[in-house]
What does this fold into?
Amino acid sequence: MAGVQGPRTFDAFTGRYAARTAGLTASEIRALFAVASRPEVVSLAGGMPYTSALPLDAVGKLMSDLLATRGAQALQYGSGQGDPALRELICEIMALEGVVGSPDDVTVTVGSQQALDLVTRIFIDPGDVVLAEAPSYVGALGTFASYQAEVVHVAMDEHGLVPEALRAALARVGDRAKFLYTIPNFHNPAGTSLSDARRDEVLAICMAAGLLVLEDNPYGLLGFEGPPTQAIRARGGSSDGNDHVIYLGSFSKTFAPGLRVGWVLAPHAVREKLVLASEASVLCPPALNQLVVAEYLTTQDWQGQIEVFKQIYQERRDTMLSSLETLMPAGTTWTHPTGGFYVWTTLPDGLDAKIMQPRAITARVAYVPGVGFYSDGQGRRELRLSYCFPEPARIAEGVRRLAGVIEAELELLDTFGPALTARAVDGATTPGPGLA
Ligand SMILES: Cc1ncc(COP(=O)(O)O)c(C=O)c1O
It folds into this structure.
């Protein structure tokens, strides 16, 4: 009887798992979640949108009206490709970044995370190469690992992905590369954006090599300075460019991540495979959530709400940058995002963000160590700070605590040498955008 057995300490199925499960590891962020959620800890770790700023009453009314008027449809199975009316609205949103796409080439997904999974599933065999920025989005790296892809990182600087580094990486891996994964706007975790000129160059390099670009753009409408930059998918001059880009979008950052609604715009032939893969995975994206999003877009001032979000995030970004400027010890550098949620920070030489993390938690501040954003062990001196969720006063306090921890680490380093602090740094070079 199962009830009389003691607690199991071993997994009885160890020998039965598929080889691909070896790539499934808890992300740095998941591991941190429990401790970072304690109220006394200022969490600069999570990238959670500030959903308290949403018009929650209006959204609640919209949902109950929806159920009252179209409940049977909202609670029914739907199309595997996604609700046609929502796909049309999605095309209007993408047009804000210059993308001309047909609703027929859009597939609605369960967040853009599912889109990442589907694209990887249909293109990657074990051992295939994915080119990705250094650093890159931890959730995408997890997906690539779960399909046993080899991730080859491409260096970034303050203008985003470095085209020369992309050429060099392509020369090394050749046809083993299946696609370039890039986050051109307000990069997670780097906080940088790919410059206009580089967007054209990156697309030209990939087109010449016959390589797909996977453009992941959840933050594009959250820029603080001027109108959105034209997407890579909108470039190339002709339909040729469009045939080389798979574009991912999401309502998670501009509306609500809890609804789990994202999308993928893909060349037609790719779209057909994506829909089949999605049907095999979820049958169809949730009808209720899609209708909520479509209703929100048609009955609420969703663009005005994005302005509200932008003001909130900009104030928090300003607080974080000015606190870093005032408080951080010499030798610490960080990026200057012009939108989105993240600041990428590089510690003074000799420090290790992963080793420092328990001391930071003791000092009641949480961040995400940089190593999780690379698939090859780089990033020990780096860490990600998020300003999207805490109130400005908490951000300032969090940075103050972090600066204190870094100062204490530097003192240890000064007194005892690298042995007690950062032996694990091992002189690794970090090509991420660790800029002043
Ligand atoms: C770059 C990037 N891509 C994809 C996602 C996943 O977003 P979604 O909530 O749409 O699945 C995130 C979430 O943080 C992200 O930062």
Observations:
- Residues 341 and 388 are 5 Å apart (CA to CA).
